[in-house]
Amino acid sequence: MSLLTEAFLTALLTGAITAGIPLLLAGLGEQMSEKAGVLNVGIEGMMLAGAYAGFATAFACGALWPGFVAGAGAGLLAAGLMAFFAVRLGLSQIVIGIAITLLAEGLTALFHTLQFARTYPRLPAAEPLALPGLSALPVVGPALFDRPPIVYVALLLVAVMAGLYRRTHLGLALKAAGDAPAALDVAGVDVGRLRMFAVLGTGLFAGLGGAFMAEIGAGVFVPFMTNGAGFIGIVLAMLARGRPLLVAAGAMLFGACLAMTTALQVAGIDIPVDVIQMLPFAAVMAVLIAFGRRSRLPAALGIAYHRGER
User: Where are the domains of the chain?
Assistant: First the structure.
């Protein structure tokens, strides 16, 4: 393998993981919500709330980990609105989700202007945690095994969520809440409470993904910086058919599309930036055409459930 090819592949894989982690976290969160029967269209706003809270906290504290905690908390707070209005009150999940996204866009832009005016301060680069032996491997070593700890945490969550869905009563209950909520109600499980738990979990994941985007991916917060990442997360969750590993694979695919600009620059290939920026959305369309018919959605997805209904 030539040095140029190795540099290109390393840059592509590194960029794919950096750009794909926020999509992975958003997709895992949305998958939990959809399994329980809630179409969480507000995930874009939850990511944006997490991005601003994470950046502002990390900037104020001079450390990244408080920012991740704050980002997850902001996503959780935004998800609380979704849980209350869409699950507790049974209002339209799509309308409430769109309202949360618009609210987050306006508030984060306003807070950024009030705090930083027209400046865009940057955070220092995150310190990587190199895994002994593995980080020295060609191509995959620097890209996979010499990254900030939050990257390893996000990848570990894939295995955690897969185990939760396949091997625990909670995973089975989440699936029943989306497929047969009335049967779950008869079994004595509070469907509303379970759905609220799933929505709050979605907000926590999405907020963490937004914080990663601002703190690790960009090192700066820019209003509206999520740029549709939450909606790609919804697509990933729908196409993954309940499998977290497929969410991870899709996130890395779209992340590679987003990272293509840097990789091509390393290889010395000049392609218009507009073409590169179009790649993720073209990939979404291609994947939907190829696999959209095979996706299986919960029977009660998007349908409000009130206890005692049959």
Answer: 22-118+144-242
